[in-house]
Design goal:
single chain; 624 residues; alpha+beta; five-stranded antiparallel beta sheet; 48% helix; rod-shaped; Rev_trsase/Diguanyl_cyclase; Diguanylate_Cyclase; Diguanylate cyclase; GGDEF_dom
Length: 624
């Protein structure tokens, strides 16, 4: 063996390696190409190539300076060849087509580990040539060991640098979309030959310009590997035999949970090297932490907004609003915040044959008859479970009840452990309301219930003040106040003063209790025969009064005659009434006392005429 020749070769290898190592990231392919060129300078062979281990393909890839070699030989040697002691030293099977050339395939070792093979082909190998090939293989093994260590160190430093830059970028952002964009961009720079997708849950809806897929984990899921990665938090592999594609699923993990899955689709590799999986996992974990921080920031921001909403709502509702103002305000708040389609305010009735009433301020659906089956069923459920109802798809849970809305929230208004009513929130889309929205509206209703109850109690108290306890008609004082308003605003009006005939005799005969019942009967008949704008009052004792805003004298007389007939026909025991009717219009110098006095005078005349009749009062200026 020529020692000088060997020293010359080694010096040549080292000069070549030193040149390459001056670069930041030397290419192993370029080094091996140069080595192949050098080998042909030292030994008489036609073709030279190096099969070097490729972790991505789990085999040995051919590197050569001669494109003819690549065409005439197999490109990949399977990793199983490592287990053979004498690998294909003269194997013709290395050629893709029949050849008369002799071949040598000599292992390149890093200690006991085979990292590749030196491939040579010639018409004939002399003993000297065989020895030189083995010697060169030993020399190349040493050079490759140095080069591999250098490249590994450079790659590790490069990866750490990328992780540092990406981590800094992540921590500077509280935007999930920016974090995900950075992940995809970084991976495309480092591994440009792969496709990337992000499986995200509904908590992180993807932007249109990101390769995102919705992460669905139910019995019908088609991609169970991604779901498994999400649920376990472990890296998952998938080999698709049909199209030779390898997929890697890496969870985006934070400290508190998993927030998505990164899918890497590789159509050109057999496996993913552990070193690269570790790097991608570190990158994914940093992204998961950034997503978690962004989520926590958004949650804290949302919590502050929710608390502000509750505080503002409570402050407004506790400012002595009337009930209609309370429901109108709540309607607007719920629509703006939750995007509700229909909102209903339901109040349970304690002293009524009807179980509940739909308050003003509710949307049209709750005011229609179609809502009754739904309300009856849901209110019964509220009473039974004494808790809120949250249904993602009502048609699935209660198919027997027709409801044009799928998403349903029903929150009871509880005061002193009693359900006073409920607030209903509906939307036509299934699963429209999130669980966070449900919890927020529960809190909102809880804080507003006291204001609702106070508004209802205040209006009930006001009603008691302005109404007669026996007949539920308005009080005389309230009628007087309302009449003063109409005299200043309207063009005309009619006033009816009514007296039950022979009431004292009736009381003496049947007693005061039945007398009170008779007054209630007459009051009920009056309430049933006046318009929505008209109002009736108990004038005192057995005297009642009716005011008809903007009514003519003819309207007043017609109403009075109807009441006379109805009372006589529908009271038990039968009684009659006498009615005095007065009238005013804008052209008169009018005041309430004058209207009352003239009606009272007409009533007196009706009594004088034999009772059970109607008398029209004289107008002002008309001779008596």
């Amino acid at each position: 063996m020529d020692i000088n020749n060997r020293l010359s070769r080694c010096e040549s290898w080292y000069r070549m390696l030193d040149t390459f190592m001056q670069e930041n990231t030397p290419s192993i392919d370029e080094v091996m190409t140069k080595i192949c060129e050098k080998i042909k300078q030292f030994i008489p062979v036609q073709y030279v190539g190096i099969y070097y281990y490729d972790a991505w393909k789990n085999g040995y890839s051919l590197k050569t300076d001669d494109p003819v070699v690549g065409k005439m030989t197999v490109e990949i040697l399977p990793a199983s060849i490592v287990a053979k002691d004498n690998p294909r030293e003269a194997g013709k099977e290395l050629f893709v087509s029949p050849s008369s050339l002799q071949t040598m395939l000599i292992p390149l070792r890093d200690k006991e580990k085979k990292v590749g093979f030196l491939f040579t082909a010639a018409d004939f190998f002399s003993e000297w040539c065989r020895q030189e090939c083995n010697t060169i293989a030993e020399e190349i093994s040493g050079q490759l060991r140095v080069l591999s260590n250098y490249i590994h160190t450079a790659k590790t430093n490069y990866n750490h640098q990328i992780l540092y830059q990406v981590t800094s970028s992540f921590h500077a952002s509280i935007n999930t979309k920016e974090v995900l964009e950075e992940v995809i961009t970084t991976l495309k720079d480092v591994y440009p030959g792969f496709d990337y997708y992000l499986y995200l849950s509904q908590e992180f809806p993807g932007a249109d310009d990101l390769p995102t897929k919705e992460l669905i984990y139910n019995d019908n899921v088609t991609n169970r590997v991604s779901v498994h990665a999400f649920l376990t938090g472990d890296v998952q592999y998938e080999q698709l035999a049909d199209n030779c594609e390898s997929n890697l699923y890496i969870p985006l993990r934070g400290k508190q949970g998993v927030y998505g899955v990164l899918q890497i689709c590789a159509s050109t590799v057999t496996t993913f090297p552990a070193e690269d999986v570790e790097f991608i996992s570190l990158l994914a974990n940093e992204a998961g932490n950034a997503m978690e921080n962004a989520r926590l920031y958004q949650q804290s921001k949302q919590l502050i907004e929710d608390l502000q909403l509750i505080n503002e709502t409570s402050h407004t509702l506790n400012s002595n609003l009337r009930l209609i103002e309370t429901t109108t305000f709540m309607n607007r708040q719920i629509k703006d915040k939750f995007g509700a389609e229909e909102i209903g305010f339901i109040l349970f009735k304690e002293d009524s044959q009807e179980e509940y009433e739909v308050l003003d301020g509710s949307t049209d659906y709750f005011l229609s008859r179609k809502a009754k089956p739904f309300l009856t069923n849901t209110l019964e459920l509220l009473k039974k479970q004494h808790d809120a109802v949250f249904i993602g798809d009502f048609s699935i849970k209660y198919p027997e009840i027709r409801l044009p809305y799928h998403s349903v929230m029903a929150i009871p208004m509880v005061q002193s452990k009693q359900i006073k009513g409920a607030i209903f929130v509906l939307h036509p889309d299934a699963y429209y309301f999130s669980f966070e929205a449900f919890k927020l509206i529960q809190s909102l209703v809880h804080h507003s219930t006291l204001a609702f109850v106070n508004s209802m109690l205040r209006e009930q108290l006001e009603h008691l003040v302005i109404t007669d306890y026996l007949t539920s008609l308005y009080s005389r004082k309230y009628l007087d106040e309302r009449l003063q308003e109409h005299l200043s605003e309207d063009e005309q009006g009619a006033f009816l003063l009514i007296d039950i005939d022979d009431f004292k005799k009736f009381n003496d005969t049947y007693g005061h209790e039945l007398g009170d019942e008779l007054i209630i009967q007459v009051a009920t008949i009056i309430k049933g025969h006046i318009g929505a704008e008209d109002f009736a009052a108990r004038w005192g004792g057995e005297e009642l009064a009716v005011y008809l805003p903007n009514a003519s004298i003819e309207d007043g007389m017609e109403t009075a005659h109807q009441l006379v007939k109805q009372v006589e026909a529908f009271t038990e025991p039968t009684v009659t009434i006498s009615v005095g009717v007065s009238y005013w219009n804008k052209g008169q110098d009018q005041h309430s006392g004058n209207v009352f006095d003239r009606a009272d005078e007409a009533l007196y005349q009706a009594k004088e005429l034999g009772k059970n009749c109607v008398v029209k009062a004289k107008c002002i200026g008309e001779p008596k």
